[in-house]
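Help needed: design a sequence for this.
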């Protein structure tokens, strides 16, 4: 009976995790049908740059401070120190990043070709800071495998975002960059309020110690590096494209990218559900079970993502023309190229979560930083030559290379004979 209950619990966790990940394409559909239609191209280009900055800060801070929290949350005797120290690292990162942006906002606007940035960066800062409570609570719920609560927090965020933007579109007929960012601020506030009332309440007696700060930092610096590479792969291309090309080209590239956000479902579900699962199986030394789960997931995921990627590439041009007519003529071919990145998704996401769970984040850090450097160089070279098409090609080349490196290391995790369940673990064997 306990086995049946365990399976039912796992299915519930996975179902809520999938539901949480479906919020991303749900907002993407809203963006396709409303935001990109109601926003002038120049305003849309500026908003996409500012949105990229906002998401970069949130993503980097989360991986620097809260991924270590999830990794060490099972150590109950140190749980309060883990929560408190991780929170301090996260807030310090956010304040430092926002301080630099605000201090150099005029220079950043000139470099990025985004004149509204000095006036609108304050809204970005407000959204980051007002959403801090929600970020911390989601990390705790993730560690506890309470994916329903994570789903509810993110659902409140996205429903508020959609509601505020829809209200602007209905009342004025057009939506501008400032209004889109105001909606983001309201969404951040509502998600923090929702997170505070969900049970279990509280923050598990957070406290800070120098030793725990150091331990969280030692793990977090590697996951931060991993996140930096993810930012390069998914966000920096928009910023570089804005610096070298026109806001209209940024807008067309953004339209192409929003359809590919379908694959974010997999990345987010893996981080929310599979990473804690892999951590638990590894910590309990259930290596054979972990091996079976990993291989089954890889085979099934590759088939599903491959079919979706090929199908999306085939219908890219007529689909964009159907939604926008002649407004974004280059978005269809861009989507056809970007959709092929879906072939790399399961190989990278599964391998990364397995390697991190095995306690070797340094490899993930090194590999992703190296490939991110390659991606950055390719972005600069190819965007200068080919504009948005160069950005799409740089992303495809880099993600394919990363998938090869990560899969080879993941295979090495299982290359040794699994130790006995109660035997001491030697990390040098990984």
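Sure. Designed sequence:
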């Amino acid at each position: 009976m306990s086995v049946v209950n365990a399976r039912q619990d796992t299915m519930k966790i996975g179902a809520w995790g999938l539901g949480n990940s479906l919020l991303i394409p749900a907002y993407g559909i809203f963006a396709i049908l409303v935001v990109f239609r109601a926003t002038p191209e120049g305003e849309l280009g500026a908003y996409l740059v500012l949105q990229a900055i906002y998401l970069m800060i949130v993503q980097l801070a989360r991986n620097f401070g809260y991924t270590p929290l999830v990794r060490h949350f099972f150590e109950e005797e140190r749980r309060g120190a883990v929560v408190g120290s991780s929170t301090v690292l996260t807030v310090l990162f956010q304040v430092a990043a926002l301080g630099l942006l605000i201090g150099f906002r005029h220079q950043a606007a000139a470099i990025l070709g985004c004149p509204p940035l000095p006036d609108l960066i304050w809204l970005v800062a407000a959204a980051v800071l007002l959403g801090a409570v929600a970020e911390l609570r989601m990390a705790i719920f993730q560690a506890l495998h309470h994916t329903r609560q994570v789903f509810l927090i993110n659902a409140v965020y996205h429903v508020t975002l959609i509601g505020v933007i829809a209200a602007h579109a209905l009342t004025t007929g057009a939506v501008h960059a400032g209004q889109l960012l105001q909606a983001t601020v309201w969404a951040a506030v509502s998600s923090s309020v929702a997170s505070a009332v969900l049970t279990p309440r509280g923050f598990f007696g957070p406290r800070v110690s120098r030793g725990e700060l150091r331990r969280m930092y030692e793990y977090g610096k590697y996951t931060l590096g991993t996140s930096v590479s993810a930012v390069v792969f998914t966000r920096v291309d928009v910023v570089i494209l804005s610096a070298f090309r026109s806001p209209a080209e940024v807008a067309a590239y953004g339209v192409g990218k929003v359809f590919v956000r379908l694959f974010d479902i997999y990345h987010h579900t893996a981080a929310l559900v599979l990473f804690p699962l892999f951590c638990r199986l590894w910590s309990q030394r259930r290596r054979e079970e972990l091996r079976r789960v990993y291989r089954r997931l890889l085979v099934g995921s590759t088939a599903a993502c491959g079919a979706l990627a090929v199908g999306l590439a085939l219908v890219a041009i007529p689909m964009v023309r159907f939604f926008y007519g002649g407004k974004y003529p280059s978005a269809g071919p861009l989507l056809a190229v970007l959709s092929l990145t879906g072939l790399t998704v399961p190989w990278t996401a599964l391998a990364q979560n397995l390697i991190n769970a095995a306690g070797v984040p340094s490899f993930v850090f090194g590999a992703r930083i190296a490939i991110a450097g390659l991606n950055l160089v390719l972005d600069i070279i190819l965007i200068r030559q080919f504009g948005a098409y160069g950005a799409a090609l740089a992303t495809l080349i880099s993600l394919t290379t990363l998938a090869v490196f990560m899969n080879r290391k993941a295979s090495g995790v299982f290359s040794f004979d699994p130790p006995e369940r109660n035997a001491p673990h030697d990390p040098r064997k990984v």
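The two ends are 35 Å apart (CA to CA).
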